[in-house]
């Protein structure tokens, strides 16, 4: 019966042989089958060599554990290769020293059973190693140690037991897990483990939570996010099991990371495989074994593996690796183990921390007791570490990083350990630098793509509020956990908090309230990011006051909200906070604030990217400000050109619809007016100035004011238009052609209305009678602004009860879609359907017909003036 299975595929390259050996060794070690590991590794090495080196194909390796032994299968994709023939005299594999066939020779010598199977595309070679008969006894033991050398743990060691079903959901949660992480069983049962696991705890672990839960056995470090929101580093041991019904699940044993000795399996000895030893060279310690195995492809994985192997090599309690900046003045924490890495990651320390060789990262150093020289290694302050050995990573004489191993007991390390660690650092320095340069290239390409996209988004809007929102949304969570934007109206104004965003929407209100209570950062026009401790200090002070207040009130009188909100806000802003000035056109117009949660730091590359973004955002924000100011001025001037409130005309319904083309325009080239002239007489006008925009609006203002002034001076329609024509021509180069329909309206006592109209080059007004007939209500005459001497005349029209007079500008009749145009005939067709409608309904129906005529919005100004004499029944 098969009880466990593991499989992997290896590419046809030389290093795959060592990778296959590591895979088989780790798998069998994980299953606890140390007695047969060496034989399995030797056989796998030969068979995989045949596949990837001699056959030149990928190799599929499968390990199967059964009740009686382990079966290992190696398959290649070269089925036509010959297999040694058997004869009556036994197996004949050729000479042992020949290049091919040695794998089968070893299978015959070491395996209990073996064989070769063929398919159309694969050749499978398998061997089985039976479990040896072992008497009951000790599986692993260590020497007796003095109490001072024993691992340190709390007086009460808690081992959390968490069972996860095949779907990744938590099915069991014991009391120790509740004490460790603060969750009651009913709070977590049925939820995915991924909701709690901050995976991985230390960057670079290549195995994710889903993969680890599927492995038959797994050990390692990660983080569990507790009920208080903090991540607790734990050491975990996973075991895959199945119940009586065959349903698989995973049992996870969890202890605090500093108590890993409770669960951690003993380190295995180096394999005696002669081929592996030949590849590794004379070194046999744990770090050199790592160097000889395939390194992770990513930088974080390589650095994390390095610190873990360095710690194991020197039997330390913690290890860390820092990378130098380009100018070699600072070191940035990139990987650690045994330390609170979430707090330390991307923290920066100076290369030269003090005088002498022990204060410089450029030379190896051994500190026997850090308590005697506090602050000698800033990274280890308040970590409980007493002794440390550090060595530089150098490439061609240039400092590229620093590697350190620390222990909780003093005087653990000497120059001998420093030499061993330096030898290992020299072996890994070039690989680290190569991976770092690859990562930098990837980050720079990503940064360029990010900035191009950001520039496109910022250039796509001139709205101030939308620009502020885009600035925040582009930084959170890509560059920071939270963001705030302060704006400065002018040099004499204080910064104003304009926008706040957090990656957790539930914390936005608390963060905004906190920032509103504290003074904004000082305005500094110089570029670059600078630290700001204001939010951190204020949040922690508020959290402390809330906690003290809750303690003094006692449990019975504790406020319902409790200190949770204050603590959550303090945690949200507890990391590094930086201020980037927003400078546009040599003036500070605001500040961009970026922050990290508790004890987190920014990467230098991210800060440089944020600076580039802030420069683009500042210019976009200033453009939005200038556009808003210009639009406000333009709209204010345009509103002054619109007619005042429309008068009520006794006995006549009047409806006006006006639409100015162009974004932000309230007045264009089309205009209308309706005004009282004297008792019982009203003037009305509808016109169209050649062109649109501010130039046309200027002529609009001239025409409207001139019409009112001249009409109230007692001039008739032709005289009014002739004098207006002269005024337009006086404008010279600024003059515009003007089509104008001007009339005077006299409501009559019998319910009708008399109109005297002059149509100067304008679309003719249409009269809709009560019987549905339509006719032009005026004759065309020359437009204004072209000729000096005009001879205009007026025509009289009587509107009977129920009649409608419709006046429009050419924005209505010249509505187009492709080659189609609404035209005069189309307007007449629409008006034909308006019999019996009110003036407002007629104007609305015409507007709806214009809008529906084409899919695109209208591109020309448009005015509609409808007048109707109601029937007696209407009134």
TrEMBL record:
Residue intervals passing through the bilayer: none
Pfam annotation, one family: GAF
Presence of keyword Hydrolase: yes
The keyword Plastid appears for this protein: no
Signal peptide limits: none
MF GO annotations: phosphatase activity
Protein name: SpoIIE family protein phosphatase
UniProt cross-references to InterPro entries, sorted A to Z: Bact_Sigma-Reg, GAF, GAF-like_dom_sf, HATPase_C_sf, HATPase_dom, PAS, PAS-like_dom_sf, PAS_fold
Source species, domain of life: Bacteria
Keywords, ordered alphabetically: Hydrolase
GO biological process, one term: regulation of DNA-templated transcription
Domain spans labelled PAS: 161-191
Naturally occurring in which organism (per UniProt): Streptomyces malaysiensis subsp. samsunensis
